[in-house]
Amino acid sequence: MDKDTVIKIADLAKIEINDKKIEEISSSLQKILNLVNEMNTINTDDVEPMSHPLNLKQELRKDEVLEKNERDLFQRNNKYIEDGYYKVPKIID
Amino acid sequence: MWESVIGLEIHVQLKTQSKIFSSASTNFGAEQNTQACAIDLGLPGVLPVLNEEAVKMAIKFGIAVGANIENNSVFARKNYFYPDLPKGYQISQYEIPIVSNGSVNIDIDKKVKKIRITRAHLEEDAGKSIHDLYENESAIDLNRAGTPLIEIVSEPDLSNAEEAVKYLKYIHSLVRYLDISDGNMQEGSFRCDANISLKKSNSSELGIRAEIKNINSFKFVEQAINYEIQRQGEILDSGKSVIQETRLFDPIRNETRSMRSKEEANDYRYFPDPDLLPVSISNSLIENIKLNMPELPNEKKERFIKQYKLTDYDTSILVLDKDLSAYYEKVLEKTSLNPKTTANWIITELLSYANKSNTGVKNYPVNFEDLASLLTYIHDGLISNKQAKIIFEKMWNNGEKPQDIIEKEGIKQISDTMEINKLVDNVIKNHYKSVEEYLAGKDKLFGFFVGEVMKESKGKANPKIVNQLLKEKLRNDK
Predict the structure, then answer these.
(1) 8 Å CB contact of B49 and A61
(2) pLDDT digits (tens, 9 = 90+) for B244-256
(3) Chain B partners of A51 at a C-beta cutoff of 8 Å?
(4) B51 and A61: CB-CB below 8 Å?
């Protein structure tokens, strides 16, 4: 895995990594990729893809409103609040 | 030289009471962040639980477009970073959407065109960012986060803005008929993204496309597509190539422009959501929903043409809006006027008032019973069509009942033969010279006599009876 790919992945994940660590991260990611590539050598043509490790089906919920307004509770620990809005740095120019 | 190729992605908010993965309310217009619970906020330790009704609504849509309904559907995480998406990913569907391979038929220039629907999947809506509230910050309201959506993706089967709008209107009409969405475009319940590219005529190779995001009116869809076709045409004509990108339509400037901010985030890294088990949909559930399907717009159209002998054009207008077609049928039930004339009245008179004031059927100031009585008065010859129009204007503007207006203003049509006889006699007496000329062969004067009688009656005489009596009298004199 090359340096640019590591930087791109870090960027997508919003993780800051310093230049010194890139090589180390690159090699450990490469190990994981090697493992995946090894698995890819197995023929799975007749195997149904698994989308969840448990062989269970989802229970559905009735369409009912059960939640109350708990805005004050959720916003108690947040400094960036005004008039009940969450505030973030301006995201449009 | 260039041919445009268009595909639409339509986002439809489902009208469930609660959200797709939480039990918070989906009501529109609540105070900011009062309907965003721990699940909607993506707080640590919460687990999404799927809303049964949202699944049923998606199945209903799938059946209506003749699509395949997947027995084992899977939810996936679509990863992107934006402040109105608290989890950092949107729960959507990727590999196995609940609905796939459907189609709808739309009328283009009196021909039927089939528009294929690639897929329709369930997903959650994001919150809302408000950028103009504070000077240095954006404000986030997460009430909308977690509202259930179906995203309906068409094949690039649409050739121009007109077709795209027709298709969009049909899907809008369909979700209202199915009662799975309120379709309110102002409130964002129904919005679309348009993928547009140009290819050389007669070439099967598609060009590079641009995607225009979040268009929320039929008019804007038309404008945005036409602008984009022209923009791309100019680029290609000058020998350059179109960039694949996401663009935003600006209705004030009537142009699309590049959305630089989101470009780099277009790597969604989908994977199956480990918090959600696959959804199992039994054939018996699908069959059960099939048995309870309402009449669909195209079915209603066929029935109207057959049952009421309406034209294709009239029917299309009445049927597109579920509430309007119901209104029409209720008026028909109560009035003695025939279906064709009743339809004309609704389309030319009522709709012109409704469109001018942008009033939906639910808010018509004239209820179906009052319109039915007014039309029955026309049928019975009590009032003329012209008088009815004047009365209708008052009904629409002041909410008055037709019988009250007729009584108050004395605008009943005179259909009493004896009374009209007197008027006719008077006119003949007062215009003896003209009568002589008429009898001598100046046939054109007949209209003059009719006009005089109408004048005498202050416009209230039934013109049919006036005509008839005048003809009889003038013949007698011959």
Answers:
(1) yes
(2) 888 999 988 899 9
(3) 74, 95-96, 272, 278
(4) yes
Q: For chain A, what are the domain ranges?
A: 1-43
Q: Which of A57, A66, A88 sits opposite B83 (nearest CB)?
A: A88
Is the CB of A63 less than 8 angstroms away from the CB of B16?
Answer: yes
| Minimum CA–CA partner of A8 in chain B | B264
**Is A87 in contact with B37 (Cβ distance < 8 A)?**
no
Tell me if A60 and B55 make a contact (CB, 8 A cut-off). yes
Identify the residue among A85, A87, A88, A93 best suited for mutation to test binding to B, counting B beta carbons within 10 A and taking the highest: A85
Q: Residue B468 is part of a domain; what is its CATH number?
A: 1.10.10.410
For chain B, the straight-line distance linking the first and the last C-alpha, in angstroms and rounded, comes to: 72
CB contact under 8 A, A61 and B52: yes
State the Cα torsion A30-A33-A34-A35 to the nearest 10°. Answer: 130
Interface predicted TM-score of the whole assembly (ipTM), two decimals = 0.89
Residues of chain B in contact with residue A5, where contact means CB-CB under 8 angstroms, are: none
Structure token pair of residue B298: 């195209």
pLDDT for position B260: 61
The CB-side HSE value for B146 (13 A sphere, CA atoms) comes to 30
- The Cα B284–Cα B86 span in angstroms is 37
User: Are B269 and B203 found together in one domain?
Assistant: yes
Q: Which of B28-32, B196-200, B463-467 has the lowest mean pLDDT?
A: B463-467
Over residues B173-189, mean pLDDT? 95
Q: Which of B64-68, B135-139, B400-404 has the highest mean pLDDT?
A: B64-68
Residue type at B118 in one-letter notation: T
Q: What is the pLDDT of residues B42-70, one digit of tens each?
A: 999 999 999 999 999 999 999 999 999 99
Residues B274 and B381 in one domain: no
Residues 6+ apart with CB under 8 A from A48: none
Q: Which residues of B touch A75 (CB under 8 A)?
A: 33
Query: Looking at the structure, do residues B395 and B431 belong to the same domain, yes or no?
Result: no
How much is the average pLDDT of A33-42?
94
Nearest CB to A64 within list B23, B96, B131: B23
Q: Could you tell me the residue range of the domain that residue B452 belongs to? A: 417-477
pLDDT per residue over B156-166, tens digit each? 999 999 999 99
The structural domain count of chain B equals 3
Percent with pLDDT over 90 in chain B: 69
Strand (E) or helix (H) holding B220: helix B218-237
What tokens does B34 get?
A: 């009062």
| Residue B220 pLDDT | 95
- Predicted confidence at residue B262, as pLDDT, reads 47
One domain for residues B88 and B227: yes
Interface probe for A, chosen from B55, B136, B277, B282 (most Cβ of A below 10 Å), is: B277
Within this chain, do residues B349 and B313 fall inside the same structural domain, yes or no?
Answer: yes
Closest listed residue to residue B127, CA positions, set B155, B168, B86? B86
Distance from CA of A6 to the nearest CA of B (A): 14
Instruction: Calculate how close chain B gets to A90, using CA atoms only, in Å.
Output: 4
Contact call for residues B226 and B197 (beta carbons, < 8 A): no
Do B421 and B404 share a structural domain?
Answer: no
Q: Which residue of B has its CA nearest to A67?
A: B24
Cβ atoms of B405 and B395 closer than 8 Å:
yes
- B379 and B231 part of one domain: no
> How many whole angstroms separate alpha carbon B125 and alpha carbon B478?
82
